C-alpha cells in the first residue's frame, strides 16, 4: 500500500461541492503535484488531508492507518506536515525559534523540566538547536539563525516555512504554492531545494503550485482539478498535452 491513499474524497459546503471523488496514491519518496485553476479545490483538499476540514465522503489512509476525520494534532503526529499559501511565520521570533516551533510535537520534556531547567530540558534543547541549525543549512540560511524572521527577504521566509514543516519529521510534506511571489531565480533555487529535500530526507512531497514551469519541472505525477473534480492525472507530459487541461487553463480568468 502507498504511503498516502485517498479514495473518493469529497467535501461540500452547503450547496457547493468543493471537492468530489478525489483519488490519489502517493508513494514514499514521490514528488506529486495537485494543480488546477483558482477555486478548483486544491487548498480544500490539503485542508482535508491535514484534518482542518472533515470530509463529507471518502477515506484517507496514511501509512496504513485510516486518518479520515482525525484532527490536525493527530495528523501532524502521524507524519503529515504542511506549509500555507500565505506565509505564517512568527515575525518577531528568531529564525531558529521559528524552526523549533515545528518540533513541538516531538518535545519530550515536561513543563516542570522547562521551569527548573533540568538536565533533561537542557539536553533536549541542545539537540533541538542543533537539528534546527542543520535544517537551516540545507536551505542555505544557517547564517541567519539569529535574525528575526521578519528580517529575511521574502524568498528566504518561504524557505523558513518549509524548514519549520520539516522540523516535525514528516513522512509526507504538503507545500501550498511554495513559489508564490518568488522571482525566477528564487523559483529555480527553490526547485533544486525541494528536490534535495526529497532526496536527502526520503519523504514524499505533495505540492500545489500555479507556476507550471515549477510543477512540470519537478513533479513525477500530477492530478488536475477543475471545479472540485479530477479532469486529468498522469505524468507531466500526459497532463500538459491533455485537451481538457489546456481548455481549463486557457478558459480560466486567473493568472495561470
Ligand atoms: N470553509 C469554506 N466554506 C465555504 N466555501 C469554501 C470553504 N473553503 C473553500 N471553499 C470554497 O471551495 C472552493 C475551492 O476553494 P479552494 O480554496 O480549495 O480552491 P483552490 O483550488 O485552492 O484555489 P486557489 O488556487 O485560488 O487557491 C471555492 O469555491 C471556495 O470558495
UniProtKB/TrEMBL annotation:
Keyword Electron transport: no
Keyword entries, A-Z: ATP-binding, Nucleotide-binding, Transport
InterPro entries given in the database record: AAA+_ATPase, ABC_AA/LPS_Transport, ABC_transporter-like_ATP-bd, BCA_ABC_TP_C, P-loop_NTPase
SUPFAM superfamilies found in the cross-reference section: P-loop containing nucleoside triphosphate hydrolases (SSF52540)
GO terms classed as biological process: D-alanine transmembrane transport; L-alanine transport; L-isoleucine import across plasma membrane; L-valine import across plasma membrane
Alphabetical list of PROSITE patterns matching this protein: ABC_TRANSPORTER_2
A Pfam entry, by short name: ABC_tran
Domain ABC transporter: start-end pairs: 4-252
Name of the protein: ABC transporter ATP-binding protein
Organism per entry: Porcincola intestinalis
Biological classification of the source: Bacteria, Bacillati, Bacillota, Clostridia, Lachnospirales
Amino acid at each position: 500500500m502507498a504511503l498516502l491513499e485517498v479514495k473518493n474524497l469529497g467535501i461540500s459546503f452547503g450547496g457547493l461541492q468543493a471537492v468530489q471523488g478525489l483519488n490519489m496514491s502517493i508513494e514514499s519518496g514521490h514528488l506529486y503535484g495537485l494543480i488546477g485553476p483558482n477555486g478548483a479545490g486544491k487548498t480544500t483538499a490539503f485542508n482535508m488531508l491535514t484534518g482542518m476540514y472533515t470530509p463529507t465522503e471518502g477515506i484517507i489512509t496514511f501509512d496504513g492507518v485510516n486518518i479520515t476525520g482525525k484532527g490536525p494534532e493527530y495528523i501532524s503526529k502521524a507524519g503529515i506536515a504542511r506549509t500555507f499559501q500565505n506565509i505564517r511565520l512568527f515575525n518577531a521570533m528568531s529564525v531558529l525559534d521559528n524552526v523549533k516551533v515545528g518540533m513541538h510535537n516531538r518535545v519530550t520534556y515536561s513543563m516542570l523540566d522547562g521551569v527548573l531547567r533540568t538536565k533533561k530540558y537542557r539536553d533536549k534543547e541542545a539537540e533541538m538547536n542543533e537539528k534546527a541549525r542543520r535544517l537551516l543549512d540545507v536551505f542555505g540560511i544557517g547564517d541567519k539563525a539569529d535574525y528575526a524572521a521578519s528580517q529575511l527577504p521574502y524568498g528566504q521566509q518561504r524557505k523558513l516555512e518549509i524548514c519549520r514543516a520539516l522540523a516535525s519529521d514528516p513522512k509526507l510534506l504538503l507545500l501550498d504554492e511554495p513559489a508564490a511571489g518568488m522571482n525566477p531565480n528564487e523559483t529555480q533555487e527553490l526547485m533544486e531545494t525541494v528536490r534535495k529535500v526529497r532526496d536527502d530526507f526520503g519523504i514524499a512531497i505533495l505540492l500545489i503550485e500555479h507556476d507550471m514551469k515549477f510543477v512540470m519541472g519537478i513533479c513525477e505525477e500530477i492530478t488536475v482539478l477543475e471545479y472540485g473534480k479530477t479532469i486529468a492525472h498522469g505524468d507531466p507530459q500526459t497532463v500538459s498535452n491533455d485537451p481538457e487541461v489546456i481548455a481549463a487553463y486557457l478558459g480560466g480568468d486567473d493568472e495561470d
